Amino acid sequence: MRLDYLTIFPEFFDVLGISLLGKAVDNGIVDIHAHDLRTWTHDRHRTVDDTPCGGGAGMVMKPDPWGEAFDDLLGADPDPSVHVVIPTPSGTPFRQDDAAQLSHADRIVFCCGRYEGIDHRVIDYASEHWSVHELSLGDYVLNGGEVAALAMTEAIVRLVPGVLGNPESLSEESYSQDQEGLLEYPVYTRPASWRGWDVPEVLMSGHHGHIAQWRREQSRELTRRRRPDLLTDE
Predict the structure, then answer these.
(1) 1-156, which class in CATH?
(2) Are 97 and 156 a contacting pair, CB within 8 Å?
(3) Lowest mean pLDDT across 111-115, 120-124, 171-175
(4) Same fold, 1-156 and 166-228
(5) In terms of pTM, does the model score above 0.85?
(6) Does the domain formed by 166-228 have CATH 1.10.1270.20?
(7) Binding positions for S-adenosyl-L-methionine (predicted)?
(8) Residue 164 burial (10 A CB sphere; 0-12, 13-18, 19+)
(9) Whole-angstrom Cα distance, residue 21 to residue 5?
(10) Domain layout of the chain by residue ranges
């Protein structure tokens, strides 16, 4: 899998060289490239923004640098196997299903907007050439798309085979199919008693059937309290 990041702050993505993502890069599972959008500007101020047409506050990212970046990185021929991800608060919510879908992609290009956003013609152009995903992390606004792109990257790459040391750990996580799309149950480890709080007795019983039942019940109760929208049979 190749991941490209178009941004005016490429240093944001230095963090991808550590932890499991860094190991995935070292092992050749993931190939990461962060590109400075200002590389594709031609004035001495390396300008990437201009005032919004129709008036209003803030600045809008100009289409020309994006178009030239696309030409250099992706060429002019349409290729729906390339996925272009645009983090934006006006996008559809980024879900685990999106991460699972994108984990099968051979190439993903993250377009990290700033200011009031990217000239919409860039998105229209990309949509005619590649598979475009306008995605939002949640109902809030960030200063730019870099933080969202990092979060999405971690959610996607950890699902790529070979990235996690124990892939079975994915099966019991929140939102997984084995979890029936529910939130994950509470987890505990030793010592059995800590500051007056004990590990639930059933988890120390060694009875796998009772443990599985307790975990299912805990998942449903936690989901009912925190995310009732995930319950489909209530």
Answers:
(1) alpha beta
(2) no
(3) 171-175
(4) no
(5) yes
(6) yes
(7) 113, 137-142
(8) middle
(9) 15
(10) 1-156, 166-228
Separation of first and last alpha carbons in the chain: 40
The tally of CA atoms less than 13 A away on the side-chain side of residue 38 is 10
- Which are the contacts of 222, defined by CB distance < 8 A and separation ≥ 6? 182, 183, 184, 185, 186
- Segment 202-230, tens digit of pLDDT: 999 999 999 999 999 999 999 999 999 99
Residues in Cβ contact with 57 at an 8 Å cutoff, skipping those fewer than 6 apart: 116
Close Cβ partners of 32 (under 8 Å, ≥ 6 residues apart)? 2, 3, 5, 13, 16, 17, 25
Largest CA distance in the chain: 70
Residue appearing with tokens 């085979």: 161
Are residues 40 and 53 in contact, defined by beta-carbon separation less than 8 angstroms? no
For the chain, how many residues are written? 234
Q: Report the binding-site residues for S-adenosyl-L-methionine.
A: 113, 137-142
* Cα of 139 vs its chain's centroid, Å: 15
Strand-pair partners of 109 = 4, 84
pLDDT, tens digit, 9 for 90 and up, residues 156-176:
999 999 999 776 666 566 655
Binding site, annotated residues: 113, 137-142
CA gyration radius, the chain? 22
What letters, b where the CB count within 10 A reaches 16 and e where it falls short, cover 57-66?
eebbbbbbbb
CA–CA separation, 49 and 74 (whole Å)? 22
